[in-house]
Every structure is written in structure tokens, then in C-alpha cells.
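Dear colleague,

Thank you for sharing your sequence with our group. We've completed the structure prediction you requested, and as agreed, I am returning the results in plain text so they can be pasted directly into your records. Please verify that the sequence below matches your submission; if there's any discrepancy, let me know and we will rerun it promptly.
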Amino acid sequence: MTDMPIKIEEEEDEKKKKRKRFLWLWLLFMILIGIAGGTYLYVNHSRFIPKSQLMAGDFLPNQKDAKKMSDTELAKYAQEAVDASQFQLMINPKSTISFDTQSGYIGIKNPKTNAYPINVRFYTSDNKEVYVSGAIEPGQEVTSGTLSSKLKKGTYEVKARFDIYDNKTKQKRGQQFAVVAMTVQ
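Please find the predicted C-alpha cells below.
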């Protein structure tokens, strides 16, 4: 009688081992199928991607029309770029205005060396605009002008704002500031 339960237990252990072995073989088979399928797709479908199609990134094309610049050409090009980017501010630090006419000496120059036209606006310390020059091209100057707002007699510390414009597009490129002692007498 004792032999019977041992045989049943051995048979059950044997069935469990077979089932476990079968599951492991089935899992291994599925992994192999996955690897084989992935390899097949990779090898066969990579042939259909056109060579001109870029998968990732963008690469520099071969040279076509470019040539190497000589040292003198490079120096000339660099100097032109520097000259075009420079701006020289020229304004007389003292201005004298007649109280009666509200006009007088305003010394503003836009030298020929500047590449950009300018417009100059004068503001009092309380930000009241008192003068606008209008466009001043390179090589031009303003020696006299009339104030747009009346000022009382006295000496004012006036802020001059130079608006700098692109000579081709006429769009504002930047601004600079200077201080002028304006005397109204």
C-alpha cells in the first residue's frame, strides 16, 4: 500500500517536469521566431529605402562653387564688415538757442565714415521732446535748428538720442545717447 502513493507522487512530479520543460522550450522557440522575424525584416526591408533618403541627421554636401579666399580678399572682406558696423557719434556738447525764435546752434555731424543715416532727438530731463533733426545722411550735418517745444531761458542738460537706421531697408538698427548743455538766452 505504501508503494502506491509514492508512484502517484513520482508520476505527478514527472508531469510537472515535462510541463515545465515544455514551457521553457515553447518560450525559447518564440524568442527564436522573434529574432528570425526581426532579422528577416531588417535585411529585406532595408533594401527598399532609397539611397537619397536621409534617415537621421543632415550631412554637408560636396563642394560645388566655393573657392578658397586669399589672405588679401579675406582681410578686405573683414575690413568692409567692420567699417559697415562702426558708428561715430559727433555732436557739440554745447548748444545755444535764442529765446525769442526758439532756434539757434545745434552741432550734429554724421561723418562720411558712418555707413548709416541717423535721426537725432533732444529730450529734457523730464523726457519732454524739444527737437527732432530729421534724417541726416552720412556726410551731412545740422548746424542750426528750431525747437519743437518752447523752453524758458536757462541752461538745460538735454539728452540727445541718436537713432541709427539701415541705409538700405530704412529700418532702425539701434541707438546711442549723448548729453548736451543747451542754453536758452
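Summary note from our side: The chain has a mean pLDDT of 85.

Kind regards,
the structure core
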